[in-house]
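Supplementary notes (optional reading)

For those who missed the lab, this is the record we used. Protein: Putative glucose-6-phosphate 1-epimerase. Length: 291 residues.
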Amino acid sequence: MTTTDHIHIGSLPAVRLRARDGAQATVSLFGAQVLSWIPAGGKDQLFLSKRSALDGSKAIRGGIPLIFPQFSDRGPGTRHGFARLSHWRRLHGDVSGRDAMPSALPPGSGIAEFGLEHGDPLGAPWPHRFSLRFRVGVGADRLELSLQVRNAGDSVFRFSAALHTYHGVTDIDGVRVDGLGGCTFLDQTDGGREKTQHEALLALRGTQDRIYPATPDRLAMRDDAREIIMHQTGFTDTVVWNPGPAAGLSDMADEEHRRFVCIEPACITPLELAPGATWTGSHLLVCQPLR
């Protein structure tokens, strides 16, 4: 049977989803942030820093931060937006009914939805009326994430969004990313210069901060003996990030940069959403052994 446990991670309330086959995911209500994903019979696939604040005082370093309505400092608001700094609500009821977002998860998966809207206390002010729904589903070898944005006001608003996924890896030197060969990217370590990736497989050496516009909807990350296959819909872009050894991040221990890579589905250029309209972005991650 599927179960849902209400727990605490540090001092933060969280929900742990367990699928019938043993797969599980843990989601903090602070930021609706996935902190752990364990496929059936496997180990945790996400990175969470040993030094991350787990008390709501600042953003959590690791897991899958939800970025909305601003990416990085590309706008006048809070860096990476307020969604990851806000306390979300778990939405109860039948999430498999006709109002639910579509899913390709196997029977017996654990599923929960979380909500945030303009009337809730937000991590930073935003002048628009909106409603966010974020669904997390886990089962077998996969994790499925869907973000739905609705304009609940009477005027158009613009937003960016991303799922800033910290993939845990054995060592960054052994990681390869497949699917970006031939793609154009903006190199944020070189003033945002536009470049082309000529290698079929991206090897991660040193600091990486790349924005790939208009990427394929299927990518793969290979590390050690497993492969994470990533499918995205709604999100048009992909960001690849690793801070490298000289990052000096206060919430990251020495050498922890070697234990993760961020590969995130994103919409970097702000989208316009008309009154009453809805946008949905989805991300499916599948963990498979390398053959």
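If you only remember one thing from this example: The domain at 3-289 is CATH 2.70.98.10 (Beta-galactosidase; Chain A, domain 5).
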